[in-house]
Design a protein that fits this description.
Helix content: 40-55%
Radius of gyration: 24 Å
Distance between the termini: 28 Å
Largest sheet: 5 strands, parallel
């Protein structure tokens, strides 16, 4: 196994290899904005598990450094959950998330279909790492699956089964750093069964504490200089596609595009997402972000220019985008691609993901011993350092989803992340840093005369456009945008209605709906996001006082039983 002392580097002006860990936190708008009701629980579940754990790892290691990106629409939802939990606990209010409400409300519904739905939802977790870790939860899972095979049998089960299942589901989703420190969690786990109204109240109080405190914890780490925080455009749109559908053809020249020739007013909408994103970020953290992770690392020359106009100091994208850009600019990689770049006639520095290192964390290391996995990373960094030793200020960007990988790791990645931060931060020949701290050293970015349009996923936009279902969704969105433009032009809405319509339109422009459409994704997830997308479009028409088109009454993307897709995709296609 490689140790920290076994990376031999030749002396240079700056012998340390700069390394950035960049975690992206994002969930789409799960609320029905008409009534605030949530359709899926992933925002609060990932908050109490992954967002809490990530900041705790940095709090616990004074030498750790990281860049963390928050989608502004996620920040809004975290605050919304916090407010509703506070209202429930202290002001007699109601919870707007069905799973949280079922856990909190003393009386469990007697409706059979609702109970079946709750049972099904309580099994939506990684069986090996989350459910089977706890014998009591594993036993409940077996009983729950028996009920789902014969739903009529539910009449023979006591309501305590559902109560215990709800408690265990939420206990299992609590972050590992919390489980190791919080006595309330330890006692509830030890109890195993026959949970009471009081036990459920204790769990709700803990969830409230985690939800209400997490943004402040990241802010404190940012103020201490231990985390750099960045943002995506407000509702996580694919900016290059808003700006120009034809940008997809750069990496996919043969792919079909939507019937619509362009997204109407896309430049203005892209700017709206950036402006609204900055406002939301500043409201939560008290300062403007220096950096931007364009949604899914999706860039084009026009995207970079727009980010530069908004004053972003840096942005980041994927390795294949860089390699395509070097080719387009007629440049070689000089044996070392790990440096900062700048597109001609812009002021924003561009950093690019190391796909190999990033994808190992996202897709490979979950079954490795933590020390072996980190040792493997160090060995790869050794090769990069040697390749780049004659290049000024090399920097390696490890960029990935900060929330979805960890349920595949033992104990939510606790051992891996602890070892990762400890060994990178203490390594004498590595400089674990942030992008702004790196730029403060005034490195000379390498100039790109051209930038290839693409994203961190395969270097293209194939995840969001270019297939029949995805293109159909874009045409639906274009129809809604034309209706929006007509209403705005005719000035038939008051100021508050315009504000609400703009936000609803932004929700419809989110990348997430397009991600899920297609027959390579699981059918159940495709169905849920199909319904969510059509609901948001219908809500927009409703706000515009327009009748929704008939086609929005019918699903259009069905998915399959394939396991190829999902919440994460690698940077390179096998």
């Amino acid at each position: 196994m490689l140790t920290e002392q076994t990376i031999p580097l030749k002396p240079t002006a700056n012998p340390k290899l700069n390394v950035v860990l960049y975690w992206h936190m994002h969930q789409p708008e799960y609320r029905d904005l008409r009534n605030g009701q949530y359709s899926l629980p992933w925002t609060y579940l990932h908050t109490i598990k992954d967002y809490v754990d990530m900041v705790a790892h940095i709090e616990d290691n004074p030498d750790a450094r990281a860049v963390v990106n928050f989608a502004p629409i996620l920040l809004e939802q975290i605050n919304d959950y916090s407010e509703h939990l506070d209202s429930y606990l202290h002001h007699g209010g109601a919870l707007t998330d069905p799973m949280l409400a079922a856990l909190a409300d003393p009386v469990i519904t007697a409706n059979k279909e609702t109970r079946i739905g709750l049972i099904k939802n309580c099994l939506r977790a990684n069986e090996d790492r989350i459910i089977h870790r706890y014998p009591a939860f594993k036993t409940l899972k077996g009983m729950a699956k028996a009920i789902l095979l014969d739903t009529k049998s539910i009449r023979y089960y006591d309501i305590q089964l559902l109560i215990d299942l709800l408690v265990w589901y939420h206990l299992a989703w609590i972050g590992e750093t919390v489980k190791r420190k919080d006595q309330r969690v330890k006692e509830l786990i030890k109890k195993e069964r026959f949970y009471t109204i009081h036990d459920r109240r204790v769990l709700i109080e803990l969830i409230h504490e985690l939800m209400s405190g997490v943004i402040g914890r990241y802010k404190a780490m940012a103020e201490a200089g231990r985390i750099e925080l960045s943002m995506t455009p407000f509702a996580h749109p694919i900016m290059p596609l808003l700006l120009d559908f034809n940008s997809a053809s750069e990496a996919m020249p043969e792919a079909p595009l939507p019937e619509a020739k362009c997204y109407p007013g896309g430049h203005k909408r892209s700017a709206w997402h950036l402006k609204k994103g900055i406002e939301t970020f500043e409201k939560n953290f008290g300062f403007k972000p220096a950096g931007c992770w364009p949604s899914e690392g999706s860039v084009s020359e026009e995207t970079v220019k727009q980010c530069s106009e908004f004053g972003f100091r840096w942005l980041a994208s994927g390795e294949t985008v860089l390699r395509n850009s070097l080719h387009k600019s007629k440049l070689t990689d000089k044996g070392c691609i790990h440096t900062a770049y700048q597109l001609a006639d812009t002021t924003t520095t561009c950093f690019f993901r190391d796909d190999q290192l990033s994808d190992r964390i996202g897709f490979k290391f979950s079954d490795w011993h933590a020390d072996d996995a980190v040792g493997n990373l160090l060995e790869t960094l050794q090769h990069i350092a040697q390749a780049c030793q004659n290049h000024p200020a090399p920097i390696v960007s490890i960029i990935l989803d900060g929330e979805n990988a960890w349920e595949y790791y033992p104990e939510n990645g606790y051992h891996f992340l602890t070892a990762l931060y400890q060994r990178l931060a203490s390594h004498p020949q590595l400089n674990l840093t942030t992008y702004s701290d790196y730029l403060d050293q005034n490195p000379e970015p390498r100039q790109l005369s051209n930038l290839a349009a693409g994203s961190w996923v395969y270097g293209s936009f194939s995840t969001w456009i270019g297939s029949s279902d995805k293109n159909r969704a874009w045409d639906m969105l274009v129809d809604a945008k034309k209706a929006f433009d007509s209403v705005i032009e005719n000035n038939t809405l008051d100021k508050e209605e315009v504000k609400r319509a703009k936000k609803q339109l932004a929700t419809c422009e989110s990348s997430d709906w397009f991600w899920w459409f297609g027959d390579y994704n699981p059918a159940e997830s495709v169905k849920a996001f199909d319904q969510q997308f059509r609901m948001h479009l219908c809500n927009l028409y409703h706000l515009l006082h327009h009748e929704a088109p008939e086609y929005l009454s019918h699903g259009f993307s069905s998915g399959s039983q394939s396991s190829q897709g999902g919440v994460m995709l690698p940077g390179k296609q096998d």
